[in-house]
Amino acid sequence: MASIGNQAGPQMIGAVGEGPPTEVVRLGTAKGNWFTRVGWSHLVGILALAFSLFPIVFVVSAALNPVGTLSSSSLIPSNVGFDNFGSILSGSFPRWFLNSLIIGVLSAALSMFISACAAYAFSRFRFVGRRPGLLGILLIQLFPQFLAIVALYLIFTEVTQLWPAIGLNSIWGLLLLYLGGALGVNTWLMKGFFDTIPRDLDESAKVDGATHAQIFFGIILPLVRPILAVTGLLGFIGAVNEFLIASVFLTDDSVKTAAVGLYGLLADEQAKNARFGLFAAGAVILAIPTVALFQFLQRYIVGGLTAGAVKG
Amino acid sequence: MAEVVLEKVNKQYDNGFHAVHDLDLDIADGEFLVLVGPSGCGKTTALRMVAGLEDITTGTLRIGGRVVNTLSSRDRDIAMVFQSYALYPHMTVADNIGYGLKLRRMDKSDIDKRVRKAADMLELGPLLDRKPKELSGGQRQRVAMGRAIVREPQVFLMDEPLSNLDAKLRVQMRAEIAQIQRELKTTTLYVTHDQTEAMTMGDRIALMKAGVLQQVGVPQQLYDHPNNIFVAGFIGSPPMNLATARLNRAGQGFELSLGSAVLSLPDTVLAERPALAAYAGREVAVGIRAEDMEDAALARDSSAQGRLRAKVTLTEALGSEIVAHFAIDAPKVVTSDTKELEKDAHVDGLLAAHQAINTFVASFAPRSRVRPGDEIEIVVDRERLHFFDPVTGVAVRS
Q: Any transmembrane segments, and where (chain B) (predicted)?
């Protein structure tokens, strides 16, 4: 064995020396210049970025423009000041902002919980009316809530006479409405996610001695955090941004949400130009909680996507 | 500690599928009973009924003398090990093991103590702070076991707990589970489709087919005295060789025409099975275990009384034995049992070309020098032949 190894060595060296110098082939390189290979994607990215950033930059710059009129605002403000923020915070806006936050947080949290309960039942139990129930939710969801606004208005007029606290012109009435509206999509979204949690886990917990409530809170909910984060975020954004129904329901200045209130600033044709700076400042402030929530929940959302299937 | 008694237990699903028929099973206190059968035979359904995860359609289930038909799982004082282990992914190993105790509002220090004890028993000590996804398959299996033993329940229920492990680990865990069960003396119902697990682990085996219990007994009894062709074919590896033969009277005794070979039957065979005489002049299904055949070249008995002649098609030298496959000219046995066995082995279609040929598998001593293609003589231990009715598949005995 050893002699063969010794012979092989010099022979191989000789072979390399005798052969003509070979051309260096770099593997993994493609044809074409830099632009056709990579550059075009940068261009697309820059265009997409400009397209999406333009309105944000415009609003931020309008908010910082101390003159505060629509006609004087430009993409890059000539003068920078926080006058608009000062004046909007001294008016009704803090109240509107608070109303928006209350509705946003409560409707997100409550609809998340109600939908999770419904999704758990639809995913885990077999009962009469399960299929019709699921289909019913889906069908109702196909129609925009706005279609029902006349009916809703009539219903809530009755409700206002009986219980003014949850009727028209009350954020609690609007909250109730939002909860019902979000139920459909969230339940479907969550049910799909719940179905991916192996039933063995439920059964194992059941044998371990857990009740349905203990299984739901102790085993299932911690495992569906990503979908809770998604539905919570969507619920919050939806409630804070909703304008149409809120504008019909909320007319008193003290109960308006920020979206309705800010629109009110521009309602007057003459005031539209003059108050644009205020409007923009309010819009920027209103965006803060949404962005903050997104940052906070990002971990769960991304975590949920990458964790993949939970092998029991 | 408790005994588990099933009396005429039935399970019929809403769609009409009858999964378990009149199951009678009596598991003694501290016994390790293995419920075995091909997939879809209702063994897991039976286990789930004992666990309380499946309703009992009719019949009575008693655990420790108490009828528990309508009792929920949590009140039955049982612990179950799932095929998928069903570990809670968001909890550490310690929390997984202690979850059942926590639900029972046990003191935190007591939980700690018992979790540690169970972990030591399973050598999980260093892993207590890990999450299930950071564990290997074997470790997960141990955690699932730990979760069961920490509760100190009256009954362990195990649903194919080793089927997700690789072959080597399976052999190791097989021994460990049996060892733990012997130490704790907890009544255990263990479901598996693997006859090796059934043979090696159980105090007794209960074999099911299509929802019907076929035979219950200690492993050796099922191996030596199967009730029917299904039990004969399912228990044992390689499975029992079966062929259709004709039983003829020859003077005072009987002889068996097995294809072109004729085996004269010793008197003891008939003395043990008086019912066999009724098959004289008729066909009978004959079963021969692989180890009851020997290469004639090695046999001391030189009489030509019990010999088959065949051509070897394949040999597998395992060191301790040589497994020889050879074609035999006696027709195959075809009953509902053999069809069920073939379905379980997934041979239908796959081996369609060979179906016409009846192949026997024999285990020869390693000294045998047989090679594929050899024409050899095989000595059959005629005392250890098995006889079954060729139509019903029921063993012919008294």
A: none
CA B289/CA B233 separation, integer angstroms: 10
Question: Using CA atoms, how far apart are residues A70 and A91, in angstroms rounded to an integer?
Answer: 20
Closest CA–CA distance from residue B118 to any residue of chain A (Å) = 16
Q: Which residues of B touch A310 (CB under 8 A)?
A: 89
Residue A11, pLDDT > 50, answer no
The class (CATH top level) of A87-307 is mainly alpha
What residues pair up with B63 in beta bridges, in sequence order? B4, B66
The sheet carrying B307-317 orders its strands as B293-295, B375-380, B307-317, B322-328, B358-364
In order along chain B (398 residues), what is the average pLDDT of each group of 10 residues? 89 90 92 91 92 91 91 90 90 91 90 90 88 88 90 92 87 90 92 91 92 93 92 90 90 86 86 87 92 84 74 90 90 84 64 66 90 89 90 86
Q: In whole angstroms, give the CA distance from residue B22 to residue B4.
A: 16
Contact A222 B52 (CB under 8 A): no
Shortest CA gap A206–chain B (Å): 6
- pLDDT (tens digit, 9 = 90+) per residue, B125-141? 888 998 988 888 888 98
CA distance, residue A125 to nearest chain B CA (Å): 13
**pLDDT tens per residue across span B30-57:** 999 999 998 888 999 999 999 999 999 9
Angstrom distance (rounded) from CA A54 to CA A44: 15
Two tokens, residue A21: 């110098």
Residue A231 to residue A113: CA distance in whole angstroms: 10
Q: Which of A78-83's residues contact partners 24+ apart within 8 Å by CB, and which partners?
A: A83/A277
- Amino acid at the residue A23: E
Strand partners, B188: B32, B156
**Conformation bin of residue B281: beta by default, left when phi > 0, alpha when psi is -120 to 50:** left
| Separation of alpha carbons B124 and B147, rounded Å | 12
Q: What is the pLDDT of residues A167-225, one digit of tens each?
A: 888 888 888 888 887 788 888 888 988 998 889 899 999 999 899 999 999 999 998 88
User: Which 8-state DSSP code applies to residue A20?
Assistant: P
Q: How far apart are CA B13 and CA B180, in angstroms?
A: 35
On the CB side of A11, CA atoms within 13 Å amount to: 6
Determine whether the interchain pair A201/B151 forms a contact, defined as Cβ–Cβ distance below 8 Å: no
Question: Which residues in B lie closer than 8 A to residue A208 (C-beta atoms)?
Answer: 74, 79, 99-100, 103, 147, 151
Task: Tell me the average pLDDT of chain B.
Answer: 88
Q: Which two tokens stand for residue B14?
A: 């809403």
Torsion of CA B235, B240, B244, B246, to 10 degrees: -110
- The residue extents of the domains of chain B are 4-231, 241-388
What's the CA gap between A229 and A293, in Å, rounded? Answer: 10
| ipTM entry | 0.82
List chain B residues with CB under 8 Å of A222.
90
Shortest Cα distance, chain A CAs vs residue B181, angstroms:
19
Q: Looking at domain B4-231, which CATH architecture does it have?
A: 3-Layer(aba) Sandwich (3.40)
CB contact under 8 A, B100 and A223: no
A interface with B, Cβ–Cβ below 8 Å: 198, 200-201, 203-211, 214, 219, 222-223, 310-312
The amino acid occupying position B79 is A
Domain B241-388 sits in CATH 2.40.50.140: yes
Q: Are strands B155-159 and B78-81 parallel, antiparallel or unpaired?
A: parallel
pLDDT bin (cut points 50, 70, 90) of residue A50 is very high
